[in-house]
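User: Please run a holo structure prediction.
Assistant: Happy to. Please share the sequence and the ligand.
User: Here you go; the ligand is zinc ion.
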Amino acid sequence: MGLEEDHQGPTDALTGFSAGPRLWLRIGQSATLPAVREERRELDELERRVVARIAQREHDLVELLQTLIGFDTVTHSPGAPPRDEARLQRYLAERLAARGAEVTVEEPDVALIADHPLVPDEFSFAGRPQLVARFASVGGGRTLLLNGHVDVVDVHPRGEWSSDPFDAVVSDGAVWGRGACDMKGGVASMVMAAEVLAELGVRLTGDLLVNTVTEEESTGAGGLVSARTLRADAAIVPEPSSLDVAVACRGSLLVAITLEGRPGHAGTPPRHPDAGGAVSAIDKAAYLLEALRRLRDEWALRPRHLYLPAADCVTTRISGGEWIVSYPARCRLECHIEYLPSPGGGDPAPVVRREFEDWIARAAGADNWLRAHPPLVEWTQGCVPPAEISIEEPVVRTLIGVQRALRRPGRVGGFDNWHDGAWLILEGGIPTVAFGPRALSVAHTIDERVPIADLVGCAQGIAVTAMRFCGVR
Ligand SMILES: [Zn+2]
């Protein structure tokens, strides 16, 4: 594989300009995915007991999830007071300590992460502590980290929910409520996996860490602290991956484009801009929206990443105009860009930014007004990097082998959107996969839900993977 930076893209039909140098994975067009050299092994006697015990405790697992959903942990927005984060973390701390874990629940020192561009000024963890529970091992094996976020997105419009989003109900074989899928379901499964290993007295030879964080849905600050303070040989983040083993996730960039017009009375007949006529900034935005649509087409047609959808750019907000009887003098477009990891590692954000800016500049260059009044492109805070690990990583091979021993598909996949695992990979150097119940398509929805069978399957997959990855005496 290599970066493809050596040829010019197709000539743009509208602007007449070339699309410029491309940067993409040279992975070929083949749809065949490389085979994972999974650890092939049937379940042994102890693993079968663990799997059976988790199945027996299905009711407890569902109750645990219902309890977690009952804590209002809608993610933090600047200046807002904490909600039930501390109560939730203390609840989990008591459960895990009762099973023998050494537990800390602390508000981290912001100095640990203050240098990071994603962390806003004045940020604080006040009232939103982070939990680390360590099940100490007999020694000699590898450490596995289980990480999940306990914050959730808001429930608006609350009136459209079929039931109270914070009072989870069980119906149609699923648990319904805010965070059921993203990702209190995954958190409940990982906690249950750790509890059952302790309950059955399984003596791991490597430590098992259970880590629950806040802020994933806002700044990513909680996961960033974990990445900078915890050491582990691998991590599993039970985000909703359809129980696929997700080895990659896309990153995202946020950008705003401001267009300038020339105000004038909307009731006057049109006059050429060169003769001083009014120019609508909204019309110019419409012109640029067409250029952005062609950029999406361009990205969609490039060679595909093995496990991730193509890069994309979605215009998420538009605002413009000052008065209903005037030509608009300003219009602003805001866009969310999803982009792919670089095969060479590192964050390719600068390359994506440059390509985006060049694309806008070329489109503007083909319009007389915009050539003289270039759109202002501003990158805004809240950008997060993509990440990827090799399918040869032991945690991938072990987890795929466990899934097959459990008679489940055991597929490698990608996670369309960013999650805290990217921090663990990029900032912590910890090979991390997402492996969790239900799918990202159900996350953040009204009537969010998670199938109970997925919760049980996730807990079983994590528990047996911990046994094989950490080792058992
Ligand atoms: Zn999530």
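The chain has a mean pLDDT of 92.
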